[in-house]
Amino acid sequence: MFDLFRAACCVPETEVADVPKNTQRICRQIEQCQKEKADAAVFPELCLCGYTAADLFFQEPLLSAVYQGINEIAKASRRFRGIVAIGAPITIGGQLYNCGIVLFQGKIYGIVPKTFLPNYLEFYEKRWFSSASALSETEISASLFGLKQEPIPVGNDLIFQAGGFPFGIEICEDLWAPVAPSAFLAMNGAEMIFNLSASNELIAKREYRKNLVKQQSASLLCAYVYTSAGAGESTTDLVFSGHSIIAENGTVLAESEPPVTEKTLVFADLDLGKIRTDRKKQKTFQDAATYYPTKPFRKIEIPGFVPASDGKFLFPEKQPFVPAGEKVRRERCLQIFALQTAGLKKRLSATGCRPVVGVSGGLDSTLALLVSVQAMKEQNRPVSDVIGITMPGFGTTGRTYDNATKLMALLGVTAEEINISEACRLHYRDIGQNEAQHDLTYENAQARERTQILMDVAGRKNGLVVGTGDLSELTLGWCTYNADHMSMYGVNAGVPKTLIRWMIESLIKSRLFPESAEVLSDILQTPVSPELLPPEKDGSISQKTEQLVGPYILHDFFLYYLLRFGFSPAKILFLAEKAFAKEFSREEILHWLKNFCRRFFSQQFKRSCLPDSVKIGSISLSPRGDWRMPSDASAAVWLTELEALEQEQTPS
Questions:
Q1: What is the tens place of the pLDDT at every residue in 367-414?
Q2: Contact residues for 422 (Cβ-Cβ < 8 A; gap 6+)
Q3: Residue 541, exposed/middle/buried by CB under 10 A (0-12, 13-18, 19+)?
Q4: 495-508 pLDDT, tens per residue?
Q5: Which domain holds residue 82?
Q6: Helices marked H in 150-269 — which ranges?
Q7: 74 & 36 share domain
Q8: pTM of the prediction?
Q9: Would you please indicate which residues are annotated as catalytic (active-site) residues?
Q10: Most buried in the list 22, 124, 128, 393, measured by CB within 10 Å?
Q11: What is the CATH number for 575?
Q12: Cα gap 453→409, rounded to integer Å
């Protein structure tokens, strides 16, 4: 469903050389994986006999027990609807190989010998095993394991195709090689890599190992399932921790608990849709496959496999643009602030201008003003060179007006106040607009009057109008064409609304503007509004943006999955339901998703002529870079799918 695949890292209790007992424990974990609807159960390297069996690997009783154990696991796999990958020593062509074995429904579909054998420090693998590079056979008889089936493919050139989910196998040290086998597996189509490992534990090795898996999954645009041997291995000289990791394109989805694990199961739902989108987009990945020609890979079909993942172990972040954890979030916000500042500094330096900012007392204009002040400080120019203009009108409330004027005074910028009411009334009379008719023209005229003031003041005072609009507003087209839609340089255009709040909070806590902390805190608590309609009788804001266009926390979620991965409305709905199960009903999410798609398509004409702005993250709507779309493209396909989803939940 929705390209999901449930992977399990299985670390069984191990008793070195007691193959029957180890086999029983492996079979029990396979049963547990069946209960959890796992699509693949990945076990450690040499788990049937133990990685630390040493010279016992050459003992015929041990090898015979291993082959019998593989037979028992094949039988157990018939009761499991997923793939099983186990590690065992196998004799092939008179040599012993450290192998990964792939089973499904009682049948062995392939055996992959380890390519790179560590033979340094505490490792002595070349004493016992040969490398896959020495292999001359391409298949072996299944009779070795007492199985009645066709010969089994062997080699490190196997890519398994299971129900449209291609995967490859590599073993422990293979990952540590300068050019890992997984690189060639991925370039030849494998979307998942299963690594059967027995990595011993040392001080600081856990973090190194984790980073290695993360980086490999990122550089190969793949999912990486890494299972390592547990504490049941011999402790003659080493300790094994069972450290297991499931990563997806540079993100760790699940990991075993530190420090040492005797047995464990780790589950995660992989979203192969993300992998497929990135591989389509990133042509460098395709070019690498052409640039580094390899021997042909054999594609091993596994018929009858059907993934069963229902997304139980999928945990989409409610705010995908906002890092979790205060420390990381604050660091990220300060990095973004530095990027905004650097962009504006360069533009001011190139033009010799001073910043002109319309200050409303809202979130966006506050962040733009703080960026402008910081840019002056870093150029050793007086903060008073910043021109802040507050332009009260029909909808301005006392709260936002006071916050705007206080903030400018505390920061020390040159503050101006230009009331737009009379100019707008004159304009209404000129065009025949009834001032009592609070329609789109009534609102837009105010927005355009403010932009005209900013532009004309900038022209008179050698200024550069700093845009305040953010990424979320540009996505929805929640800006007036040729008004707040326009500026001379946009510092917020790459920052989504859900992140702007955290940015201001991070600036408060980092004490970059200590004198303004109190007023900044109040701005954080102010409802988002363009303030183009008269206030309520009590003076409070009457026009609240999220009541009109929908919650920004939902829209930013939709934006992320639509632009970053190109997911269908049905999949975005599925993910949103999981993320917001406690906040929004399915009906509410569907309603706002439909509104999002309608607005996103109809408002492209505003994005097609955006001013220069700072790119912040992986998603940008700049027509010169990341997003190119016809202004008259139709949303019919997306809306039709959403209407069908609505019909599904409407009682007949």
A1: 999 999 999 999 999 999 999 999 999 999 999 999 999 999 999 999
A2: none
A3: buried
A4: 999 999 999 999 99
A5: 4-301
A6: 173-176, 181-187, 205-219
A7: yes
A8: 0.92
A9: 45, 114, 172
A10: 22
A11: 3.40.50.620
A12: 20
